[in-house]
Structure formats: structure tokens, C-alpha cells
Amino acid sequence: MTPTLVQDTHLPQRARDWAEIQERMLVPLYEAVYERLDVGAGTRLLGLGCGSGLALLLAAARGATVTGVDSDAIRLGLARERLLPQPAEGARRWNARLVRRADGVHEPEADAALPPAGPHPDVVTAFDALAQSAELARTAASLERGTPVVLAGWGPPERCGAAAVLHVAARLTEPRAARRGAAEGAAGCWQPGSRDDLEELAHRSGLRLDGSGRVACPFGYADMDSAVRGLLSTGLYDDAVRATDREQVRRELAGALQPHLRDDGTVWMPNLFRYVIARA
Q1: pLDDT in tens, 174-227
Q2: pLDDT at 106
Q3: How many domains does the chain have?
Q4: Which domain CATH number covers 269?
Q5: DSSP class of 63
Q6: Which regions of the chain are under pLDDT 70?
Q7: 141 lies in some domain
Q8: What is the 3-state secondary structure (H, E, C) of 7-30?
Q9: Alpha carbon distance 215, 212 (integer Å)
């Protein structure tokens, strides 16, 4: 769920919506991967596309030393609040380093006392792997042989309750796609996972396959407004907003979410995510 940002006036709040509403939906995936790879004290973990840092925080809480890389400065700022708060704030500072990726260049964004480079990671994660393909190839080439790399993404659409809701983006983008070409017009829309897409990405990145798994990650929201805000925060509706307008996308989303609205006002969608473990 990598964001393609739309209107500057919405960016800070949207990043907050991701961090406070949507990101937690993937906690079962993060925990399943960490449990399988025995992430804990002594683990050096590198998270590609770390966003606002929840996955890093969970690894750090297990005792890992974590480094996060992302291109989104606003989300990295939220990750810093979680992992590297100012001493005056009284919160715990974890053993973490955050790096902003800009035009293929890594720029230190964390505490100035942290070194710009360190030992090779023991584990690499790309929880939105298809959006991190270029970074994966560069990273894989620098890893020590045998280092596990986790690639994750959506499961098959028939196992994702959110599929119909996510397809709203493609439907609203169709007129724009017809004018610009389907491939370009759909670039910001949700693409259902194919059976071998993660495996193919691993091969293209020069990695050897060494296992896989599936994890249930239901999307649950306190109310309809939270569901709409959470889904918009993913960035998967950006082309739809450009092709129509934000309010129309919100209305269409709310309509598509109606089948998932419960009597108590909560919204619930079962989903399945896949991950592949590959090695350098």
C-alpha cells in the first residue's frame, strides 16, 4: 500500500490517518513474519518502505535493532515520533535509524549521532514488495549470502473482502486511463495479487526462494468515516481523485463499503495477505 501523494493540503492528515487507522490492519502480517524468522534480541532488521514505522516498532519491541527506509518524509516524521522521540517527551527511544530515500539516494534522517552505515542486516522486509521492486534489487545485491528477505503483498482477490471496495479506484479512473493509456492510468490503483508475482519479483531481484506463507489481515474500522479515511490514506485512490474529485471518491467508497457495514456501525472486511521468504 504505497502512497502516491495528491494534494499538499491533505498530506499531513492523510499520513496521520495511515498511522492511526490503516497501518494497524497489517499487524498480523508483521507478527507472523517476525515469529517465523525469530526476530528478537540481536537481530539487525532493515525495513524497505517502512512508512510511519509500526512494523519497525514491533520488531524493536522484540529487541531488534531496526533501520527503516522510505521516500515519504511525512510518514518518516511519524516513524521518528514513534521510534526516536525527543528526550523531553519522556517516551522510550528505540535502537533505530531512519533513512529517507530520494531519487535513489539514501539520506540519513535520524539522530545525527547514528552512523550513516552499519553492519549488514540479518533480515530485510518489504511488506509492500511490488512497490519496492527497484529498492529490492539494489538491496539484494549488497546483502551477505543467505540473508532472508521477506516480500509481501495482497492475496488472491477472491480471498480479499476489500477487493470490490478497492476496485472503485479502477472504475473511477477508467475515463482517464482511456485518454492516457490503460497501463499509465491504472498505475495508482489496486492490482490484485497473482499467484506467482512475489516469486517472480524475488527471481528478478536475484534472490533464492525459501518458503512462503499466508496471513489473515481483516480490515476493521470503528465507523464508516474511519473506513473511508483509512482507505484513502493508502494512496490507492489517488488516480481516481485526479480523474474525478475527492468528494466523489469518498461517496463512491462509502457506497461500496455498505455491504461490510455492521449493525453496530463498525465496518469489517476479511482479507488474506501473502509473503515469500527468499535469500540472497
Answers
A1: 755 444 444 443 444 566 566 789 999 999 999 999 999 999 999 999 999 999
A2: 53
A3: 1
A4: 3.40.50.150
A5: T
A6: 1-10, 102-118, 175-194
A7: yes
A8: CHHHHHHHHHHHHHHHHHHHHHHH
A9: 10
